[in-house]
Design a protein that fits this description.
Helices cover about 60% and strands about 0% of the residues. The protein is mainly alpha-helical. The chain folds into three domains: about 110 residues, no CATH class; about 80 residues; about 80 residues, no CATH class. The two termini are about 60 Å apart.
Length: about 300
Amino acid sequence: MFKDKRKRIPDDRDRNLKYLKLEDLPNGYPRASAYLNSDVGTTLFRRFGTLHSRALLYKQHELTELEAKLEKMDRDDAETVETSWRNSRSINRRDGEDNEDKKALIEEIVTKLEEYDDLLLRDAGLRKLTRPSKRSHRNFMDWVWTENPFGRVDQQFIFHQNDFVVLDEYDESWLDVFMHRLMYYFNRGFLRKVFSNAEDQGKTSDEQVRYYSEDRLGVFIKIFVAFTSSALLLIPIYLFLTCTISTKVMASITLVFALIFATAVTLCTNARRQDVFAATAAYCAVLVVFIGNIQQSQLPK
C-alpha cells in the first residue's frame, strides 16, 4: 500500500519524461527564457512604470484639450437661438448636416478615450502584480551578470530593481526569506538533502545556482508556524495553571505574549494589518476568558 505507484508500473513510460536543464540550451535568450521559467518567483519582467505614466500623461493632455474644445463649442452654440438646439439634441440632425463639427469632435474624443482607457486599465493591472523580493531580483541579476546571455549592453534592464514584477503568485514573508538565506549558507549536507530533490537539482549543473523544493519548504514553514502559534497559546496557560501568581502578573504575562504573538503573525505570515489586529484580539480574548475562569474557580463557595 505504501509502495510508490510509479515503481509498480511495468513499462518504461517515465523514461520519456523531459526535464529541462539550463546548460542543454544555447546561452543567450534560449537559456535565459528557461531560467525565467525554471522556478516559482523567477519569472521577472520589467513593468516600465515610468513609460506607462508618461504615455498616460500625454493621452491625458490630449483629452484635456479636446474636452476644452468641446466645452467652447457648447458655449458658442448656446449664444444664439439658431445653434442652441445642438446642446439639447443628438449630434445627428438631418443626417448630421447641421452638426458635422461636433460629431467629428465627439468621434475623435471617443477614439482618444478608448486609447486612454485601454492604457490606463492595462497599467492598473500591471500595478496589481506582485513585485519581486530583493532576493529574487538579486538572484536574477547575479545570474545574468555571470552567464552574460545578452551582452553587457543589452542586459542594462536588470539594474532597474524597483521596476520589476513577478508573474507567479507566491508568499514571501520574513520567515520565507530567512529560510532561503539559511539554504544559501548551508547549501550542502543535511539541509540540502531535506529541502532539495533530484528533480530540482537536475535543472542545472551550475554550483552557483541552487534550486530547492518549494513544497518541502512550504510544509516546513507551515509546521513551524503551527508549533509557534500553539506554543504562544499554551505557554501562558501553563504558567497560569502551575504558578501561584496574582491577577496583575497574569495580565502582564498576557500583555507580553500578545505582543509576541502579534509580532510572530507579522513576521511569519503575509497577513494584512486588519488580519493581525483580528488574530491578536482573538488571542487576547482566549487568555482573558481563561484568566476569568481561573479567578472564578478560586472564589470561596
